[in-house]
What we know:
CATH architecture of chain B: 3-Layer(aba) Sandwich
Oligomer: heterodimer
Order of helices and strands of chain B: HHHEHHHEHEEEHHEHEH
Mean pLDDT of chain A: 97
CATH topology of the largest domain in chain A: Rossmann fold
Distance between the termini of chain A: 33 Å
Mean pLDDT of chain B: 95
Shape of chain B: globular
Largest sheet of chain A: 7 strands, mixed
Structural class of chain B: alpha/beta
Number of helices of chain B: 11
Number of strands of chain A: 12
Helix content of chain A: 25-40%
CATH superfamily of the largest domain in chain A: Thiamin diphosphate (ThDP)-binding fold, Pyr/PP domains
Low-confidence stretches of chain B: none
Number of domains of chain B: 1
CATH class of the largest domain in chain A: Alpha Beta
Distance between the termini of chain B: 27 Å
Number of helices of chain A: 12
Strand order of the largest sheet of chain A: 2-1-3-4-6-5-10
Structural class of chain A: alpha/beta
Radius of gyration of chain A: 19 Å
Strand order of the largest sheet of chain B: 1-2-3-7-6
Order of helices and strands of chain A: HEHEHEHHEHEHEEEHEEHEHEHH
Amino acid sequence: MRNTFSETLYAEATANPDVYIVVADISPAGSMAKFSSEYPERFINVGVAEQSMIGIAAGLALKGCQPFAYTIATFSLYRPFEMIRDDLCYQNLPVTVVGMGAGVIYSTLGGTHHTQEDIAIASALPNMQVLAPCDPLECIEATRWCARQKNGPVYLRIGKAGEPVLTAQAEPWQFGKLRYLRRGSDVCILTYGVITAMATDIADKLAAQGRSVSLVSAHTLKPLDRDGISEALRQHPHVVVIEEHAPQGGLASQVKQIAWDVRTTCRLDTFTLQDAFIHNYGSTNDLLAAHGLSPERILAAIG
Amino acid sequence: MSSTSFDAKAAKSRCQRYRRRILDISQRVSALHIGGAYSCTEIVDGIYNGLMREPGLSSPDTFLMSKGHGCMIQYVVLEDLGVLTRADLDAYCTPHGRLGVHPDYGNPGIEASTGSLGHGLSMVVGMALAERGKRRDGMIYTVLSDGETQEGSTWEAVLMASSLKLTNIVAFIDNNDFQSLGRTSETHPSLYPLGAKFEAFGWETAEIDGHDPAAIFRAVSSRKGDRPLMVVARTTKGKGVSYMENAPIWHYRSPNKDEYAQAIRELETQA
């Protein structure tokens, strides 16, 4: 996803001289080298100084530019939180804060590099929009949208590298709308971000058992497509939420809220990270499994 | 800059008038950070009325009040320039008004929302970068408080401004030596000498009497201009009213009727 992000941003910057990227000593690979060599005045590396990364992006936006702020998710959102709140959200500036490697992708780097609460934190801010593409193709759509929108700030949660393409046959991406990657009638899996690959595996296994499965990328976490979720709750007897995020304030808790509001009668199962730090190491899947997020555990629970 | 010379006498007269206006507004609200507004009155006047080209909504230059709590002087100057209206200031901090204790982006003449310290200078760096990127010659002026230099984020921006060679930044520190819990020089003696720290970070620096309009103008007009400029302006908190000067309580409170009358008498004497 990093590469598709940087390739897309390079293309957008080529088309629009107001597109800037402000990074904090972490740069996306791929085309970012081309970006920095061809547009050196628009590639700003503040170093290990995330507060000024956000403030500088705000200053650029106050003068009509379309900046992106980029580093590892925990440093892009948590460290400069008040700058994001005051400089970006309070002033409602079209700055995209990119949280790269969110969730537990940095699985061997320890809890300081995990982002388990970012959707809740970003979504709590007025004016903030929250996007989490599920694969490289969706990352292209989301990045392109961020580079062109003037609504206000965006938190763009992306993965790192090696994510499979999941949306080649999917319906078109539309900001603020659920995106069905496949449609079925028995079970609907709502998910977003990198863990969509696991959700796809689970959907495949359910289909192999003879279940008709909808698989949905809820790529826009804010504004959340409440109507779309209400419809999914109405149209499926069983809805499952899978997310790489704490149980509070993410997709799962919001779907439960909507389910209550619409008096849903369907079965609703949610699978999230726990409200706990992770102290063990291994692959991303090892860490997810430590919190119960594995195809086997989820399939067993779904029944 | 708007001109090569600056009428210091006229500036003093304006500043007396501005202080008087702030005093009048103070009688309608319980708090308005009068001390910090008085300490940077000459600086803000000098920026708008001496340094900025075509001060007002069409100026190619920008003023960002990083020490947002001092914005009452900015409001008063903007009123004088016709950017804000008398009705705006008369409705200060009321339900039907649009001006509050800290500046809000979106109000006429307000270039950024501040009030939380340590935010302004990074936004200034971004603005200066945008001016350079758009091939414009806009200057970005800002006023920081001395307490604000305790924020780590301020130093992140200081480092970036000089590293990026942003010669279109002119910053002032309103060095009134006071913050909420005491004299800055006593609570944080290692903050001084301030100018040398900015010099070490690659800024051009000047140290002046922050209540001397001619010195304010001269510090900027005589700059070399090959680096961002930081003017450390020695000021007095509550300047102009004897009982407010260097008295921390006047960071926030408004004078009562007797205090108001005395303040008016003192300001008129200075005129």
